[in-house]
UniProtKB/TrEMBL annotation:
PANTHER family: EPIMERASE-RELATED. The lineage of its organism: Bacteria, Bacillati, Bacillota, Clostridia, Eubacteriales. The keyword Hydrolase does not apply. Signal peptide: none annotated. Keywords: NAD. It comes from Proteiniclasticum ruminis. Residues 9-243 form the NAD-dependent epimerase/dehydratase domain. Gene3D superfamilies: NAD(P)-binding Rossmann-like Domain (3.40.50.720). It comes from the Bacteria. This is UDP-glucuronate 4-epimerase.
Amino acid sequence: MKDVETLKILVTGGAGFIGYHLTKALLREGHRIIGIDNMNEYYDPQLKYDRISKLVEFDNYQFLKGDITNKDFLLTLFENSGFEIVINLAAQAGVRYSIENPYAYIDSNIYGFMNVLEACRHFPVKHLLYASSSSVYGGNKMSPFSTSHNVDHPVSLYAATKKSNELMAHTYSHLYGIPTTGLRFFTVYGPFGRPDMAYYSFTKDIFDERPIKVFNHGLMERDFTYIDDVVEGIIGLLKQIPSSVKNWDESKDSISSSFAPYKIYNIGNNAPVSLMRFIKAIESSIGKEAKKVFFDMQPGDVVKTYADVDELEEAIDFKPTTTIEDGISRFVNWYKDYYNIRFE
């Protein structure tokens, strides 16, 4: 165990993909973690229960089934637990699903986050970190995407809710002095991931000998970020508590900071990968070529994401090291083991 101060930390969305990996790393450092999750059926809940089954082996971990949209549950939890750090990863994820079921995003990502902010207001914490998304960059053409860029042109409701989270966090930072850090994640992937993500569904389809759907005829790029690199970035920011920038001036100071104790960071690989290289990495790891069916771009999607991580590198010396080939290989090995696949 590293020589670190032991903290009491709440991780919402603790049974989710990032929540699971982050919690496991924090537990190994000796922190006391309470994880909450509503265990919804957006994707197979068994994955969530299997993640939790690995976390409850730690003595310094407690899991509670609960929903951040339940204000009374959340306030009671905060009142009784004395959290020092809160990491809000609970959200309704998925760009495409936000077109089919928009109200789920308002409930979880807006109303639920409001409850988290109110809980932090009434039971103050040292630091609130929360998941934002690279989706906030929307229709931006300038790359790499920088936290100094305007993000007022979302192309999905999911992106709009994440931008709203940043605005809400800033307001509470200003009004109540809550130090908040927004984390704009760029296409996180890895073992125990989300089945709705392309790398997961592509892998499943190739093993099941079904064709994969390739959108925009493969002419897309993503700044795929391996889960271990993301976890390293989050943990590095725990004690990077934002402070107010005296005499902050938007004409000369970074808009990722503020006169409030507020900060935004990109957490990405800083190395976009073409969709076809990404598919090739999956094919190579499986040892079989995919049958591909090409489609036009889907509503709400974007052609390219590319993270500028200069501020994160300056703050915590963040340097992602995992190539797409290495990361996909680790995922495919996990997938074969988890689903007991013997593929020749």
